[in-house]
Design a protein that fits this description.
about 425 residues; alpha+beta; six-stranded mixed β-sheet; iron; Cytochrome p450; disordered N terminus; three-stranded antiparallel β-sheet
């Protein structure tokens, strides 16, 4: 059996890697299904690549998500991980195993049920149209940052509507609080600013809890606070679930909008086809997610005891991560995987994960992406990048993928909207 500690782990770092990790993933897939890797923070992990190996790993009952399973080597670096261990935001769904995971997930599933979020589609369309209405009338000469104007705003507006975050609290949310999921080591000069962000987010969550306790309403946030008061959740679990909703519930959609648009800018014929055949949008969103997913890597999993994983001995408590992006471009599962094919028939991708930790907000995210991309390409004629693609700033996040800015130009904004979306 291959040794568990290769001398030189593969480095997952650098601007070239963040801009285009797919050549590296292709090489790793060819070499085998599992590899020792090193992240910029100094944390090592076992990375699973190909589609079959990824799917089986995500459903492997031997692998747990609770950080208590991590061994001493992993814990030695845990203080630089997202949400330092002293944070009370550590015990959300992504870090839980059954039966706790099952009970916590049950509290949120109704809010994200496919039928419920589909009923909200007209409201989401109104939000998207309002944001486009606020854009410059014509931007042929001046670049517009689509992240700032749309991609970072639309998902949060949708999320606030779905979970019952009232306007006075939504107005106070700072997008930079999402930065607490980025690894900033204890010796990093940015650490004080990082911890200040963390304290600010914790204070905001405390205010949300207090507000929803006093004015519960019928939204998800009010129901979670009621579950805490009924003894179904600890205070740390409540805070963590609200954190997960506020950050994981919207930032990946922001990133997925950017990766999807970059792919369409590379394939203008596909963008034009979507303009003329809007009924293709649901299938197009699935293909765009497969091609370049905002969920690049999963969070950590751990074995309770030494075991074989895809032919390699993995020590108990070592972290195991699955590359969803590598799995989604496995030629053994998706023929010609580096090509954007709006007519692809090879079945579902792993962009939302698999198994018991499959993204509970998948139905909502799909509708958001359909509405967002459809609205932008329909209402912004001549939409195109305003800078060379190699100048796009890709986010440095370890697990996610997207651009922090997306400068574009377009012609005169189409002020007409679909008749079914008009009011009055």
């Amino acid at each position: 059996m291959p040794p568990s500690e290769p001398v030189q782990p593969v480095h997952l770092s650098g601007s070239a890697y963040k801009r285009d990790p797919y050549p590296l993933y292709a090489r790793l897939r060819e070499e085998g299904p599992i590899h020792r890797v090193l992240f910029p923070s100094g944390v090592t992990a076992w990375l699973v690549t190909g589609h079959a190996a990824a799917q089986s790993t995500l459903a492997d009952p031997r692998l747990g998500k609770n950080h208590a399973r991590g061994n001493d080597r992993w814990r030695a670096r845990a203080s630089i991980m997202p949400e330092p261990q002293h944070s009370r935001l550590q015990v959300h769904l992504l870090h839980q195993d059954p039966p706790k995971h099952t009970a916590m997930r049950r509290l949120i599933t109704d809010a994200f049920a496919p039928r419920r979020v589909e009923e909200l589609r007209p409201r989401f369309q109104e939000m998207a149209d309002a944001l486009v209405d606020g854009m410059p009338a014509g931007a042929d000469t001046d670049a517009v940052d689509l992240v700032q104007c749309f991609a970072a705003r639309f998902p949060f507006q949708v999320l606030a509507e779905v979970i019952g975050l009232p306007p006075h609290l939504a107005a106070r949310f700072r997008r930079e609080w999402g930065g607490v999921v980025a690894p900033v080591g204890p010796d990093d000069p940015r650490r004080p600013a990082y911890e200040e962000l963390l304290r600010g987010l914790e204070g905001y969550i405390a205010d949300v809890v207090a507000d929803r306790r006093e004015h519960p309403g019928d939204g998800l946030l009010g129901r979670l606070v009621a579950a805490r008061d009924a003894g179904e959740l600890s205070q740390e679990e409540l805070d963590s679930m609200i954190f997960q909703l506020l950050v994981a519930g919207q930032e990946p959609v922001t990133n997925q909008i950017t990766t999807a648009l970059v792919s369409l800018f590379r394939h203008p014929e596909a963008m034009e086809r979507l303009r003329s055949e809007p009924g293709l949008m649901p299938a197009a969103v699935e293909e765009l997610m497969r091609l370049d997913s905002a969920f690049e890597l999963t969070t950590w999993r751990f074995l309770a005891e030494d075991a074989e994983l895809h032919g390699t001995r993995v020590p108990a408590g070592d972290s195991v991560i699955v590359s969803l992006c590598a799995a989604n471009r496995d030629p053994g599962r998706f023929p010609d995987p580096d090509t954007l094919d709006l007519d692809r028939q090879q079945g579902p991708h792993l962009g939302f994960g698999h198994g018991i930790h499959f993204c509970p907000g998948a139905a909502l995210a799909r509708i958001e992406l359909q509405v967002a991309i459809g609205t932008l390409i329909r209402r912004l004629p001549g939409l195109r990048l305003a800078v060379p693609e190699e100048e796009l700033p890709w986010i440095p996040a370890v697990l996610g993928r997207g651009t922090s800015e997306l400068p574009v130009t377009f012609g005169t904004v189409d002020r007409g909207v679909c008749p079914r979306n008009k009011r009055g």
